Amino acid sequence: MTTSLTLATAPVVRRWRPRPGAIVGALMLGAVLLLTAIVPLLPGFDPMGQDLRAALLPPFADPAHPLGTDALGRDLLSRLALASAVTLGMTVLIVIMNAVLGSLIGILAGYYGGRLEALITLVSNVTLAMPVVLLLIAICAVLRPSAGLTILVLGCTWWVGYARVTRNIAAALRRQDFVVSPLTQGADSVWVLTRHIVPNVWPHTLIIAATDVATIVLITSSLEYLGLGVQPPVPSWGSMIFDGQRHLAGDPWLALLPGLMMLLAVGGVQFLSQQFTAETRGGLLRKGGMR
């Protein structure tokens, strides 16, 4: 008897009760997403336009620039909105790549075992031992730094956690009667994987992905701060903090505003991921976990 996708998730939806932390997290993340979605629709949206005569305007000093301007006279509200879209977009792509790649590798290793499992374990250990920042610096020494390069490197080096969890689950499931029985009756491995293994693996993958989002935001922002991610003039949280630190003495808002956006996004995701993790695990336990 198997725990299907519907059975595993339905109790979570029906019995979901928001905790205070989840409400706070939704408000924090919602503020960032609202800014990202609405500001580009405003008439004065121009993240690239420069006006040196209006440089370093403080917040709320000019109606045309509600959050002020940077050293080149560029509108900070517009740049924060674009930076949020860039950083969060990169984060989502990286998390999806890692979740899909890691889960696929882990399922294959756990289900087939043998030499394939030994090979994948070796590759996982080597990948885990590589410092991501140093690897990206080495690659950027040969290739030009870009957002695409950052997505590719992080998307191919952060999957080990997914692979280890899904490998253990698939290895435990391959010996269960509901997996062995269809094989003895002529079912192929693809049918067994898609009908019995994946539905029991994907909730655990979502738990890891939910907690990984905040980590990837911090990593991508750190790389952008070092100049290894999105390149000027396209803004990102990390690059805006780097540019703003030069004016901390007189104009601290240049670094504080993108830092505040990062705080809201990371904090909101962390609060929501805790709620999601608790509810998902509770749903699995109520249905007896993997059967």
TrEMBL record:
Top-rank taxon: Bacteria
Main location per the UniProt record: membrane
Pfam family, one: BPD_transp_1
PROSITE patterns: ABC_TM1
Topology with respect to the bilayer: Multi-pass membrane protein
BP GO annotations: transmembrane transport
Transmembrane segments: 21-42, 80-111, 118-139, 145-165, 205-228, 253-272
Subcellular localization: Cell membrane
Record-level GO cellular component terms: plasma membrane
Residue span, ABC transmembrane type-1 domain: 88-273
Annotated signal peptide: none
InterPro entries: BP-dependent_transpt_permease, MetI-like, MetI-like_sf, OppC_N
Keywords: Cell membrane, Membrane, Transmembrane, Transmembrane helix, Transport
Similarity remark: Belongs to the binding-protein-dependent transport system permease family.
Protein name (Swiss-Prot/TrEMBL): ABC transmembrane type-1 domain-containing protein
Species the sequence originates in: Cryobacterium arcticum
Lineage, highest ranks first: Bacteria, Bacillati, Actinomycetota, Actinomycetes, Micrococcales
